Amino acid sequence: MKNLFQGIPENLPDEVFEELCSGQQVKIERIVSRGHTTPQGEWYDQEWDEWVVLLSGTAQLKFEDRSELVAMSPGDYLHIAAHQRHRVEWTDPDRDCVWLAIHFKV
Amino acid sequence: MKNLFQGIPENLPDEVFEELCSGQQVKIERIVSRGHTTPQGEWYDQEWDEWVVLLSGTAQLKFEDRSELVAMSPGDYLHIAAHQRHRVEWTDPDRDCVWLAIHFKV
Q: Looking at this predicted complex, what is its ipTM?
């Protein structure tokens, strides 16, 4: 059996995206960040909806249509609609931020 | 923003199943157990595949086609194919066992 908090590289030059499971209209993905952010000026603009939960560490997201940042702690989750432009503004550089993202067609 | 570890009733006479998000071919569900098990002699036999992760507490699953129990700790995850008969044999009675289950059509 695998564990979401294991198998994390000691050195993490880039965010790590790992597909854990998928169906025709769903993709379950683990993302590990450690201080990584979306490159300046870039936005995620996704074809599918995403439901995402932060399981360890802390992070801040930014949505194009909201002025304030969204601060996330372990257990916090949200639903990002397809084409809702967003970016990862900040992740804790001192801890592994483990995200579980479910991408799906509505 | 909601949190997977909040909003858990103090008294938990039954397991709590809560749909957090869904699409046509996916359902994301939080399950909270505290000593609950699948009733004796009963098996889950599901139409859809399930990907499930235990996020707090400890538990033991039983699959009809395996003799040994599957012990789960926080972060452990597994993929249960549609119609793979299984049951929850044991959950920690002293802690909230928070599961995140993704049900999906392959």
A: 0.94
Binding-face residues of B in 32-61 toward A, CB within 8 A: 49, 51, 53, 55
Kindly list the averaged pLDDT for each block of 10 residues, start to end, along chain A of length 106: 95 94 96 95 97 98 96 98 98 96 96
Domains of chain A (ranges; CATH) run: 16-104 (2.60.120.10)
- Cβ-defined contact of A102 to B26 (cutoff 8 Å): yes
Instruction: Please give the model's pTM, rounded to 2 decimal places.
Output: 0.95
Q: Cβ contact (<8 Å) for A23 and B74?
A: no
**Any chain A CB within 8 A of the CB of B68?**
no
* Alpha carbon distance B22, B24 (integer Å): 7
**Measured at the alpha carbon of residue A34, what is the angle toward residues A29 and A37, in degrees to the nearest 5?**
80
Residues 6+ apart with CB under 8 A from A81: A49
DSSP secondary-structure letter at B45? -
For B72, the closest chain A residue by CA position comes to A1
